[in-house]
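Fold these two proteins, one after the other.
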Amino acid sequence: MEKAYEGHVVVLPYPSQGHINPLLQFAKRLASKGLKATIATTHYTLSSISAPSVTVEPISDGFDHGGYAQAQSEKLFLDSFKTNGSRTLTQLIKKHQTTTHPITCIVYDSFLPWALEVAKENGILGGAFFTNSATVSAIFSRIHDGTLRLPVRLEDCPVVLPGIPPLNLEDLPSFLNAPESYPAYLEMKLKQFSNLEKADWIFSNTFQELEPQVVKRWGEQWPVKLIGPMVPSTYLDERIEGDKGYGASLWKPLDYECTKWLETKSQNSVVYISFGSMVSLTQQEMEEIAWGLQRSGFDFLWVVRDSERHKLPKGFLEFTIQNQKKGMIVNWCNQLEILAHRSVGCFVTHCGWNSTLEGLSLGVPMVGIPKWADQLTDAKFIKDVWRVGGKVTVDGELGIVKREDVVTCLNEVMNEGKMGLEIKKNVRKWKELAKEAISEGGSSDKAIDEFVVAIKTFARKQRCLI
């Protein structure tokens, strides 16, 4: 017999790894609390998603065989996704109307505000899910309402917004001083707020203790529910059995090879480096980071995508191949398992929000090398607000990080000096606070419970109307 559910939530992510992961994790949390949870994703990403408790259904972005890469244009892709996504999401809702579990609510990635219109047209609830930090979301909210005007120039800094520490130009999302550089992306960021007042819920992948002042001030404008960190349960509260990974991977990880190598290392001795799925460094910057790693003397595990491998300096590759006990280069691995390993003492990261939350949740000190968008703001908080790591300085003339600064940051974070000890103490504190927030009775857990109760109530009313 089919399981009886008290509500059915469709979760709709933007189809990239950094957006699928937290929304899929939210779907698993909802399923663990008795709701039927479905991920609606594009045909191109459909086969990459698998979670035992969550149903996966396809919708169309108009580029079913290649996704964004097939479109080769941000604007073309987003326009097509709106048209085809609205049509096929509506079909999905209608498909379930006559079943024992009609769809009650759509929780949509805030990058896709058209999904809220689909929900309202079909008489169901809608909630926006913000995948950035509350701070970054608040910054774009201020741009949308005209409080913060673009472009932001050097003479306008520091920028002071309610609840947010003063931000210099290098701390702001990268294209705020050159909005013409990524027009489609900026438009997408601002459209998150275009119909937000119609949303029944607004979710943010953060937690109360992490950004209290910005949440308080942003919450005066928008009633935000903080439900993070959306990190698999095994690494936090352990209440979802077997939840060791997100359940979505557009790449094939090399778990065994990585963990076998890490097992040979002493505690907190390895520097783990990963710049995520999207960041592409210049060859010169790859060389500086590579030689900085070698010069630091620390053992390292570096994730370098196949498309980026040719940028590594030949001498460095030879050094790594000949000294496999010292360093290892792989094209992908399970980041959560690596960060959780006892031998990892530092995470060199691009400071994407998911990676930042993972570093905090697993208690790993970080060294930030942010490249664009929200990464710059996240790096500011890592270094100066939460004080859980460092940030490599960018050379003003060359616009890249230099090997000397890489070495300096690694030494500060990895060694047992005054700064290193403070960073390690702080990151342990945030690990406990993250676990507390999502555990039973924690602030994020309560927020999710409130949503679940509301969905079950609405579902009962739905059944009475049938």
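Now the second one:
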Amino acid sequence: MYYNGNNSVGPLGYTLTLFQSLATSAGYDPVKGPGSSCLAADASGKCVLPWGGGTKPVSSVILIGNGVSFAVMTLIFTSIGSSADYGTFGKWLLFVVTCICWGAQYATIALTNPSRWPLAMALYMIGYISYGATLVFYAAAFPRLARNTARTREIQEKYAAGEVSQEAFELEESMERNRVSNISTTHSNIGYVVVLVLALAVLIPLQSNPLVDNYTLMLVNTYWVVVGIWWFVYQQPRPGPPLPKGENYLTIGWKQIWVALKQYKRLPYTFTYLLGFFLLADGLNTTGALIAICQNDKFVFSFLDSTYLGLSQAITSTMATLGFWYIQRYWKISTKTMFVVTNVVTVMIPFWGMLGIWTDKIGFHNKWEFWAYNIVFGFFQAPYYAYSQTIMAELTPPGYDNMFFGLFGLSNRASSMIGPNVIQAIIDRTGSNWMGFPFLFAVTVAASMVIWFAVDVKKGSKDANEWAKTGPLEH
């Protein structure tokens, strides 16, 4: 139910649309000069805001916000990520970042006119940062849950009694990790569908109300609060070991990460995967942000159109996550193979955008392409998120879940300090959003090659289990 409410519609979807809408309304057309409107019928399609001593395109301002957000997430994951493995710190950490995200969403009710675009930027960043943290610290519970389900315990007992081979045991354990990850992702996508349908109940009857977007955000956030609060009420106590003597929650993370990084030779596939995912997340997250900017421009920041597009993605995401899981379970396909299938589409999305440099007929210049993008994204990228988490779970030493999922979150979020800053510099120089796609295509191809050819998940899992027997602080 927590994941059902934590479905990204508010913090990553509507809040971005509202921020970009206010920023565009506050900006001016650089071709016509200050005082002109970016939304005029004869506008050039370019829009700039006062920034420092000069101006910046609205697209660049949004990407700067993303880059700063990822930098803050990096600080969070490195400073306190692994601290969540000790005692009940992880439980309270998730609660705090969730409440911050809820608060930022409710505060968007104040975003009522274009002059408040700086506040919109701040609230978008706070929501983005806290939402990213909730994903990492909630997903860190999955490996521990998967190790203790009835099915896993049954196969462990059979393995200990010599009734099944090690290979069969490892396959079944991997399948159980995939089950937890895929079913939880499915619930998130179901919440995605439900909350978008609820949003229509506000957007359609109140579409002429100037505050309809703000009211929609309030409804979406309240849905998450109502269904998400019960995790904190009913979750079972699963405390980690006590904090080592002489350590504190703010410094132990840095120490463990430093020691772990020095031992990359003992966990070569884990760290190779983290490197590959660092690049892949950079390419995918920045591609998504750039397409969202183009989509909002094409649909003139319409929450209603965004909701219909989101529904197309949400429905296909739900179908795909369940479909991929049943295919994998039926044919006993490895997690990595399933992940590779999703990677192919990850690479093709920025490639399609790149085509828009040379022609206006395709390459995210038409409304139908954004419909196609949302449907294709739903079919392949929802399983991508589930399988990327499962691979990380398989390469994580048992008992160090938050520490390594903190590194995973670091790879996912810290990498994205690079992409948005590179892309906004390209947009500043060229004046075209589409010139950012070649860089993103190159990054996703390089990342996919690393993961496809340099990560052995089966060997990496064995290395992780051996590493867990001693842990990082003893070395």
